[in-house]
Amino acid sequence: MVYEELQRAQDRVPKYDVTIILGDMNAKLGKEKVFSQVVGCHTPHNVSNENGELVANYAISNEMFLIITNFQHKTIHTGTWTSSDHQTINQIDHVMVSKLKMRLIHDVR
């Protein structure tokens, strides 16, 4: 599984290093209270999909934060995927950063 491989790679990174993970995770992150410790209030989705749950659980386990959800942007700038009919916009690409280093990130767009 991808997250097991990612975990093995992250386990080799010294704890004092800044860890940033970014990519197309096909993860919709919702506003569920259980994920509030790793997902900010500026996520465009109300409910996480299965990949969102996997990403959020990974972030919880590794003391990381999905920083893209921490910054407010105009709706036009929050989507990272648009359907071919332009009716559906999702935020599925994400940036995770170590919670202890969040202050180093001033914006993500």
* Structural class estimated from helices and strands: alpha+beta
The CATH architecture can be named as 4-Layer Sandwich
Order of the strands making up the biggest sheet = 1-5-2
Instruction: Tell me how many strands there are.
Output: 5
Summarize the main sheet: 3 strands, antiparallel
Query: Count the helices. How many?
Result: 2
The whole-angstrom Rg is 14 Å
- What order do the helices and strands follow? HEHEEEE
Provide a descriptive summary of the structure in words.
The chain is of the alpha+beta class. Strands 1-5-2 form a 3-stranded antiparallel sheet, covered by helices on one side. A two-stranded antiparallel ribbon has the order 3-4. The protein starts with a helix and ends in an 11-residue tail after the last strand. 20% of the residues lie in helices and 17% in strands. It has a single domain (2-103), classed as 4-Layer Sandwich (Deoxyribonuclease I, Chain A), CATH 3.60.10.10. The model has no long low-confidence stretch (mean pLDDT 89).
